């Protein structure tokens, strides 16, 4: 397989993650930041588009800014593919 540049080929760059990459947030905050539903985020995790999030002692998922950037990329790809 080769990667050819064609007029319909669009490359998206991943946004740079801030120096707070180690800060964590729960799924509700990530949903607000990405305009995705909590169920969509869980779906992407089940489909391995997003790495499994570590959990707190209370079993809450914890996400980083890197995860938010990845979800933004997934959303842009989905918008590009969907009519």
Describe the structure.
The structure is a single chain. The chain is an all-alpha fold and 83 residues long. The chain has a domain at 27-81: Multidrug-efflux Transporter Regulator, Chain: A, Domain 2. Helices cover 41% and strands 0% of the residues. It is built from three helices and no strands. It has helices at residues 27-34, 38-46, 65-81. The longest helix has 17 residues, at 65-81. The two termini are 26 Å apart. Residues 17-21 have low confidence and may be disordered.
DSSP E strands, number: 0
> What's the helix count?
3
List the quaternary state of the chains: single chain
Bin the strand percentage.
Answer: under 5%
Give the N-to-C terminal Cα separation: 26 Å
Q: Please name the CATH architecture of the domain at 27-81.
A: Orthogonal Bundle
CATH topology of the domain at 27-81: Multidrug-efflux Transporter Regulator, Chain: A, Domain 2
Order of helices and strands: HHH
Spans with pLDDT under 50 lasting ≥5 residues?
Answer: 17-21
**What is the share of helical residues?**
40-55%
CATH class of the domain at 27-81: Mainly Alpha
Cα gyration radius (Å): 15 Å
Mean pLDDT: 82
Tell the overall outline. Answer: elongated
Largest sheet: none
Helix-strand makeup class: mainly alpha
Secondary-structure map with pairings?
Elements: H1 27-34, H2 38-46, H3 65-81
Notable traits:
single chain, about 80 residues, mainly alpha, Multidrug-efflux Transporter Regulator, Chain: A, Domain 2, elongated
Short description:
This protein is mostly helical and 83 residues long. Helices cover 41% and strands 0% of the residues. It starts with 26 loop residues before the first helix and ends with a helix.
């Amino acid at each position: 397989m080769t990667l050819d540049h064609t007029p319909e080929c669009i490359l998206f760059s991943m946004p740079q993650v801030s120096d707070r990459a180690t800060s964590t947030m729960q799924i509700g905050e990530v949903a607000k930041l990405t305009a995705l539903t909590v169920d969509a985020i869980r779906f992407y995790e089940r489909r391995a588009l997003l790495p499994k999030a570590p959990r707190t002692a209370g079993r809450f998922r914890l996400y980083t800014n890197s995860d938010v950037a990845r979800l933004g990329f997934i959303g842009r790809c989905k918008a590009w593919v969907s009519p």
